[in-house]
Write a structure and sequence with these properties.
about 600 residues; alpha/beta; Nucleotidyltransferase, domain 5; eight-stranded mixed β-sheet; five-stranded mixed β-sheet; 20 helices
């Protein structure tokens, strides 16, 4: 037996993953256990879970591998400060103690915290991303593209994978970073860096890209091969504590939007502009990947890989037969990539591909809980619940959703990555005209402009969307079928007023540009969720549900039955389907709500 544990930590989205004899056995983000969104701490809870799922003692591991090389990253940070001295002395004095205390001593941390005396190995950051993209993919050979904020030095890497080997061919280095550019605009538009980038993408369709030319004139120089150079004069991330500086604000004429403030048309136009620029750069890079590698297939990872609009354009316009994107594209996925890289490259194990089927297991790689474990939690919270057979449970959930009720759905293994894919989901009726605003404001407590994603049975995909292939991980956008759209060309509505416009027969999942971030559901990947869609289809004739992550704004996706119950009680969800139990909000005692409030205050 050959078992490799991968770890990512200390920057954002810490995680652990374990690979045993080539199988991805388990993977989870630390935030799901600690309930601290984006938790960057050493992922001790994730590690314990992975070892438990694999039924392994820590010293049975063949190796533990960290997802980047701290000493090289430290070299980059010191070099950047020296290059820009005396500027940034405050940031320097704040950063260095953290490095000297823990970040430089990762091997000691691993050995001490795990009691591990075996091999401790290190990959580079973009090797981890590349491995997370290629090795779980369904391709014997494929091109690789990794784009993020920054690893050690690299920010954008082109490579290729064949069999059990990865070769990195071209790279762009810090401080020139497409990920950091997008994060700068994330901050400017009032969202949190490293977690709010998808909000910026969701805001973009409300605006017009009127500042795209200004961005390309002042902030980024783009070459035909997709390489780019950022104008360092406008950014503070190299040595400062912020993403941007006053010069950046001056060229747009307004300060950054205050966090939690509602964006007006100006910020919507800014969001549309940077999204357009990002897509332009990604398309040029995609074309360069195709030219350099001449591969038929492309795999993608890195935080920018979560920009599903850009992914879709690359697929349509860059000449690849298909694209596979790592569902946990950000730093969390680096833990999985590190484990896979060491398994295949360091230990030189053969890789056998099942054509057409990836190795990611639907990304259902987190913990699951038995009915006994669930019931123990429900009893502790004095909850009122009903036990139903699986078939009757799904019928009841389908009926509730068809009656415009909102249902928390907690089944099977938790998803790895930022998307809920039917196991830790909040579900609603995509046909409802009010469900988009109801779920945003009363369930998720989040910005009203945020779109919701649809889940659709794979065989009914073409009935609803202009899309021709599986999309199991919500990493591509498709246009809603023209036959389902309403004529909205004559409207004079602008900005958030567009929310009141009924755009299609599925208004709750149709974004203002008539797109949707689709999840296709196959029975072989998730039989319970697929069967729920089937029950809903029997009742309504519709095979589409709203599927959003089971959490409220600012919290990680729920992991445990307790997390699910407390989230259910703290929102206006109507029902909770958890294991074989169904709970109705109106039947629940106040004790659950009071305990939820105490927990929120504590956190």
């Amino acid at each position: 037996m050959l078992a490799v544990l991968g770890i990512s930590a200390y920057y954002h989205d810490s995680a652990a993953a374990i690979v045993v004899d080539g199988e991805i056995v388990a993977a989870a983000q630390e935030e799901r256990f600690t309930r601290k969104k984006g938790d960057a701490s050493f992922p001790i809870n994730s590690i314990k879970y992975c070892l438990k799922e694999a039924s392994l003692d820590v010293n049975k591991l063949s190796a533990v591998v960290f997802y980047d090389k701290p000493i090289v990253k430290f070299e980059r940070i010191i070099s950047s400060y020296i290059h820009n001295a005396p500027k940034g002395i405050g940031s320097f004095l704040q950063a260095i103690p953290l490095w000297l205390k823990s970040k430089l001593w990762i091997e000691d941390e691993i050995r001490n915290k795990l009691g591990f005396d075996g091999k401790v190995l290190f990959t580079t950051h973009h090797q981890s991303h590349a491995a997370s993209a290629f090795f779980p993919s369904p391709y014997d050979e494929a091109a690789i593209l990794t784009v993020d904020g920054v690893g050690e030095w690299e920010t954008t890497v082109i490579g290729m994978g064949k069999g059990n080997r990865i070769t990195l061919l071209k790279r762009i280095n810090f401080p020139h970073s497409l990920g950091l550019l997008y994060s700068a605009f994330t901050y400017y538009c009032g969202f949190k860096v490293n977690s709010g980038e998808y909000k910026l993408m969701g805001l973009a369709p409300y605006g017009k890209p009127v500042y795209a030319d200004l961005i390309k004139k002042e902030l980024i120089k783009i070459k035909e091969d997709g390489s780019y150079i950022l104008n360092e004069r406008y950014f503070d991330y190299i040595t400062g504590l912020k993403m941007i500086n006053r010069k950046f604000e001056k060229i747009f004429g307004r300060p950054p939007l205050t966090p939690d403030a509602m964006p007006d048309e100006f910020y919507m136009d800014v969001a549309a502009s940077i999204q357009k620029v990002l897509e332009e750069v990604m398309l040029k890079i995609g074309n360069e990947v195709k030219r350099v590698t001449a591969m038929d297939y492309l795999t993608i990872a890195g935080g920018v890989g979560l920009n599903c609009v850009a992914n879709s354009k690359i697929l349509k316009e860059c000449g690849f037969k298909d694209i596979w994107v790592q569902p946990a594209s950000g730093d969390a996925g680096g833990a999985l990539g590190a484990a896979l890289y060491v398994y295949y490259e360091y230990f030189d194990k053969p890789r056998i591909v099942n054509r057409g089927k990836d190795f990611q297991k639907g990304s259902y790689l987190g913990p699951s809980y038995s009915n006994e474990e669930i019931e123990e939690v429900l009893k502790r919270y004095e909850a009122k619940y009903h036990y139903l057979s699986t078939g009757n449970l799904l019928k009841e959930v389908a009926k509730l959703i068809a009656n415009e009720k909102v249902v928390g759905f907690f089944q099977g293994r938790m998803e790895f990555g930022p998307r809920a894919l039917g196991n830790r989901s909040i579900l609603g009726d995509a046909r409802s005209e009010v469900m988009q605003s109801v779920m945003n404001l009363k369930i998720k407590f989040r910005e009203s402009f945020r779109p919701f994603a649809p889940s659709v049975k794979i065989e009914r995909l073409k009935d609803y969307f202009e899309w021709d292939r599986p999309s199991p991980y919500m990493l591509f956008v498709a246009q809603v079928k023209k036959e389902l759209l309403y004529d909205t060309k004559k409207t004079d509505k602008k900005g958030l007023e567009l929310l009141k416009l009924k755009r299609s027969e599925l208004p709750a999942i149709t974004h203002v540009d008539n797109s949707a971030r689709i999840q296709t559901v196959a029975r072989e990947d998730n039989p319970i969720f697929y069967d729920l869609l089937t029950e809903f289809e029997k009742l309504t004739g519709c095979s589409v549900l709203i599927n959003t992550s089971f959490n409220v704004r600012g919290e990680p996706i729920v992991c445990s039955p307790e997390d699910a119950f407390l989230c259910f009680m703290g929102t206006n969800m109507d029902a909770l389907a958890i294991g074989n139990f169904i709970l109705y909000k109106e039947e629940q005692p106040e004790v659950g709500l009071e305990k939820w409030k105490k927990r929120i205050i504590k956190d």
